[in-house]
Amino acid sequence: MPQMTMRDALNQALHQEMERDERVIVLGEDVSGGAGGTSGEREASGGIFGVTKGLLPRFGADRVIDTPISESAIVGAAGGAALAGLRPVAELMFADFVGVCMDQIYNQIAKFRYMFGGRSTCPVVIRMAMGAGMNMGPQHSQSIYAMMTAVPGLKVVVPSNAYDAKGLLIQAIRDDDPVIFLEHKALYPRKGEVPANPYTVPFGEANLVREGEHVTVVAIARMVPFAERAVDSLAKEGITCDLIDPRTTSPLDIDTIVESVEGTGRLVIVDESPPRCSLAADIAASVAERAFKHLKRPIVRVTPPHTPVPFAPALERAYVPGPPRIEAAIRTVLKET
Amino acid sequence: MIDSTGLGRERLLRAYRNMRLIRDFEERLHVEIATGEIPGFTHLYAGQEAVAVGICEQLGDADYIVSTHRGHGHCIAKGCDPGGMMKEIYGRRDGLCHGKGGSMHIADMAKGMLGANAIVGGGPPLAVGAAIACKRRGAGNVSVAFGGDGSANQGTVFEAMNMAVVLQVPAIFVFENNGYSEHTGADYAVGSKDLTGRARGFGMAAECVDGADFHSVYDAMGRAVARARAGGGPTSIEAKITRFYGHFEGDPQKYRAQDEVATLRESMDCLKRFRARMRTDGKLGDPELDAIDAESLALVDRIVAEAKAAPPPSEADLYTDVYIDY
Ligand SMILES: Cc1ncc(C[n+]2csc(CCOP(=O)(O)OP(=O)(O)O)c2C)c(N)n1
Ligand SMILES: [Mg+2]
């Protein structure tokens, strides 16, 4: 099977879905780039992370729409176009920019179906790059999936690898609900095997990345490859873990997590969003409700501190949970009382 | 109102010194960033110096500015310490924001510099708020929102402009029209292709100036400040300008014609234009300007060396300044 980066896998998903369905359009800032430039080069960008490359030459400016810097209008237009029968994929560049267009996300697209009594669908995908690790500072590094997951009506996708990214994006485009699609920017170059043909990865089905017996580890997005390193290193000592990647945080496959904890009795949750009201907090609460009697040790959450994401490399390194912290957390839940 | 004809030698020397320092600061960053030693991503202001300096030369420490992702020039022009800035850009503990913000978030309240801003359109509403504070204080201070042609399409900017007119506050919106927002041309993204006309549509005075000409910017700003002080409300100043580098360092600039930058470096270089003007006016001589050039390069050498040698923040610093007390 061909090896492909997550960036290219996402790009392929967009190509294949636009090919398959005329109703799919892409809109955002510099998704093509070059409009109004002096070089005559019409695709001068292809997206700031290169995910939308090649779409403009293939599908034209009617379907690949460069917008002004107007996030509220981008997301709102995507929502309106969806109500009117299109299947828009809007790009917000950096996830932090949801701050600018929160009303359209939170009061508009998320609520249409419910408040219109089921009379509408809003098949919008809003793609955005999230996450720390590249020294982009407090307004370009946040992991916002917990905030998005807290909004009823939104589906939230957090791929950790190229295979999932492609299948989840195709699923998101075909899904009739609004989907927040969060691409961790440090994962764009991560390579994996990706089938050439279109396929979907269903929402709400976790991926069991490693199987083990001593500890259940749940990790999200970039935390998955970090947790893999920690888990694989402990495996050399005979400590084995179930490593679960939920892949979507809304819907969340809590059953898979609970079943695993019933077997291991120990849970570590690795989450890059701030600790308060986080995914880690949410998962811990559900497990406490449903598997309390199976827990042999208190649940351990591995998260950044309750601070904004700092700029300086020395600070950001301390902020982001890395493999050593994950390994230490696994050792902590293994201690006998 | 002070117009540029009234500027004495000292003020002219200071204006040139600041423009020169911004240029050298940015050109040196261009070199240093290529070595990979500077974290994050950086947007250089080179080419636009006369706008920052022309505007800020009309201001004092008690006046406010809010800046953008391309903020180094605004910071220097408003009096921020260039050494502290350089350390911040390197992510050092003793940087102006202790390494927490970086290039896109340099701020210094004591200088009336309310922050560079990584959210396009994040600044103008803040500038309106600072203008409300100026109006209440009643000391004749003003507040300036810097922004680009691209930012002018953001809803927050429209809201800020309208509110400034409604409230008749001393806010000045400076649009640095360098022709591009990232990789997209202003002629595409600004529907009316006319930022000044659009500003006028909000009901404020608006003018468009040659942003490479310090004197034109300074005089337009003089008129705006006089209007604001007289209770005449907000003004929009569009400065037509160019950037000498890519959107951020590493931008291949495929949207720009091959010779565009080389040509504009000839015709739109504010430093060359300033020198020529000084020759014509007979106000400053080349030797004293040459001396400033040498001092400026030496200063940049020193602050880069200091920034490189400065210690990084420690892990304990991660937890400070989230709240005052918690
Ligand atoms: C809300 C928001 N949207 C998009 C961006 C990404 N972005 C950063 S700078 C920029 C272009 C800004 O163009 P302009 O206002 O003309 O300023 P210039 O870069 O030309 O100085 C964009 C799109 C951002 N930082 N914030
Ligand atoms: Mg611009």
The CATH H-level superfamily of the largest domain in chain A is: Thiamin diphosphate (ThDP)-binding fold, Pyr/PP domains
CATH class term of chain B: Alpha Beta
CATH 2nd-level architecture of the largest domain in chain A? 3-Layer(aba) Sandwich
How many separate domains make up the residues of chain A? 2
Low-confidence stretches of chain B: none
Count of helix runs of chain B? 12
CATH homologous superfamily designation of chain B: Thiamin diphosphate (ThDP)-binding fold, Pyr/PP domains
**Helix/strand class of chain A:** alpha/beta
Overview of this structure, please?
The complex is a heterodimer of chains A (337) and B (326). Chain A has 337 residues and is of the alpha/beta class. Chain A folds into 2 domains: 191 residues, Rossmann fold; 128 residues, Rossmann fold. Chain A is 35% helix and 18% strand. Chain A is built from 12 helices and 14 strands. In chain A, helix 1 packs parallel to helix 7 and helix 9 crosses helix 10. Chain B has one domain: 3-Layer(aba) Sandwich (Rossmann fold). Chain B is globular and about 50 Å long. The interface between A and B is large, with 45 and 53 residues. Magnesium ion binds next to strand 4 of chain B.
